[in-house]
Amino acid sequence: MINIVIAFDNQNVELGSYFDDCKKDIVEFFNEQNGLVQSCCEIPSPQCNVAYIDVRIPQLNSNPFIFIAYTHGIEDGLRCSGDSFVSTANSHHFTNSLFYSTACLAGRKLAPDLINKGCKAFIGYMEESEVFKNAIYKQTFIECDNYALKMLLIVPEATVETSFVAMKNHFTNKIDRLQEMGESPLFTASLVANREALICLGDKNLKKEDLFVPQ
Fold first, then answer.
1. CA-to-CA distance for 69 and 98, rounded, in angstroms?
2. DSSP label at residue 101
3. Which of 33, 79, 134, 178 has the fewest CB atoms within 10 Å distance of its CB?
4. Please, which residues bridge with residue 201 across strands?
C-alpha cells in the first residue's frame, strides 16, 4: 500500500478550478484501486505554505510516498499565493518520494535538486505548460497530465520510464486524432508544447512496489 500527498492550489484565480479538477480526477482513480492506497493527504491552497510542508512531509518521509502537485511553478520551486512552498530550501524533505508535478518550469532546477537530495524520481515539466480551461478541451489536458501516474500504478511491471514513455505516446495519439478531426490548431499546438516540455529524472526503473509502505 502507498502513501499519497496531493498539494493543489484550488484557490488560484487563474487556474484554481483546473488544479482542483486534476486533484479530483486522480483521487477518483485512487478510490477505484482497491487496497493500493494506504493514506491520501490533501493539501489545498491554505496549507500550501512552507510551515505546513516543513511539518507534514517529515512525518511521512521515513517511508516511500508519492507527492503530487497541481500548482504554479518556477524553476526552483512550487508556488501558491505568490510564495514558494516547495523549493531547493526544503527539497530535502522529499527523500523517498516519487515527485509528480504539473507545475511549469520545476523540472529545470527543483527536479535535479530533489534527486540530489534523495528523491526517488521526478516527472514534470521543464518549460511553461499550457492549459485550455473551457469544458470542451479541459478534460483532455487533465487526462494527459495524470496519465503517467495512472500507468505506473495499474500496468503490471510498469516502471517510471515506461509510464513516462506511455504518457508522451498518449499525448501524441491525442494530438494526431485531434488534427485528423480538424480541431483548433491552438489546442493541438498546446498539447505538442506540453509533450515536449516533459522531463523524467531519477530512478527510471522504479516500480509501484518500490513505493509500498513496509508492513
1. 11
2. E
3. 134
4. 122
